[in-house]
């Protein structure tokens, strides 16, 4: 089956997902196999009710790991045993060293929130620094006197609100590592297609 048929089936569900966003998300998942190139990291930007999580879930079965958010401790941690063996914990610990993996994050909103018991600026900065190293294929976290390492190739697909635009001090640390696909820019076209999707069992889309 071609990608346009698959996109049409998904988008004619009750959720009424935007076909363009679905195709971009699927292309990101497929890009995991392009091991000769840099990994593709995609931010799906949209409002809180903009179907970001639902769109990302269309490729959930293709992902090595699906998580709801990110924290520095949740990325990689560990502790030594009495025998001196380091036991790794966290998201990266569940991915084999040297792996080529796809990870989806349904909502990065917690990463963008500060104050009121939410994430501190230091924690935010630490996560963005970690993401930069993870993109480049090798990440080391130092805890007390313990160094915990991970290496591999990671494709990342994440949903985020437009609040990411106010995080320039942190996102600039990532350089050009993230691509952005903005659902808000497609809102008019999305609304125009709703009636067509509801009244048709098949919609041919050419790309």
Please give a structural write-up.
With 207 residues, this protein is α/β, with parallel strands linked by helices. Helix content is 31%, strand content 24%. It has eight helices and eight strands. Strands 1, 2, 5, 6, 7 and 8 form a six-stranded mixed beta sheet that branches. A hairpin with a 2-residue loop joins strand 6 (138-143) and strand 7. It starts with a helix and ends in a 9-residue tail after the last helix. The model is unreliable at 189-207 (pLDDT under 50).
Short description:
With 207 residues, the chain is an alpha/beta fold. The protein contains 8 helices and 8 strands.
Structural class: alpha/beta
**Rg measurement, Å:** 19 Å
Taking the alpha carbons of the first and last residues, their distance comes to 15 Å
Count of helix runs = 8
Tell me, what's the shape? Answer: globular
Oligomeric state of the chains in view = single chain
Please mark out the parts with pLDDT under 50 across 5 or more consecutive residues, or reply none: 189-207
User: How helix-rich are the residues, as a percent range?
Assistant: 25-40%
Helix-strand pattern: HHEHEHEEEHHEEHEH
Strand content: 15-25%
Q: What is the overall pLDDT average? A: 77
Largest sheet: 6 strands, mixed
Number of DSSP E strands: 8
């Amino acid at each position: 089956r071609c990608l346009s048929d698959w996109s049409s089936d998904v988008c004619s569900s009750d959720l009424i997902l935007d076909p363009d966003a679905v195709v971009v998300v699927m292309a990101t998942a497929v890009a995991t196999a392009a091991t000769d190139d840099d990994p593709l990291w995609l931010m799906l930007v949209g409002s809180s009710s903009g179907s970001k999580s639902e769109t990302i879930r269309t490729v959930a079965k293709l992902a090595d790991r699906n998580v709801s958010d990110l924290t520095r401790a949740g990325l990689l941690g560990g502790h030594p045993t009495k025998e001196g063996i380091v036991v790794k914990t966290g998201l990266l610990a569940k991915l084999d060293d040297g792996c080529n993996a796809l990870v989806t994050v349904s909502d990065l909103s917690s990463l963008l929130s500060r104050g009121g018991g939410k994430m501190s600026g230091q924690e935010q900065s630490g996560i963005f620094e970690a993401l930069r190293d993870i993109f480049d294929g090798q990440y080391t976290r130092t805890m007390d006197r313990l160094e915990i390492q991970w290496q591999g190739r990671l494709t990342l697909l994440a949903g985020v609100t437009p609040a990411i635009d106010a995080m320039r001090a942190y996102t600039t640390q990532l350089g050009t590592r993230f691509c952005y696909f903005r659902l808000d820019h497609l809102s008019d076209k999305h609304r125009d297609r709703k009636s067509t999707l509801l009244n048709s069992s098949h919609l041919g889309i050419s790309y």
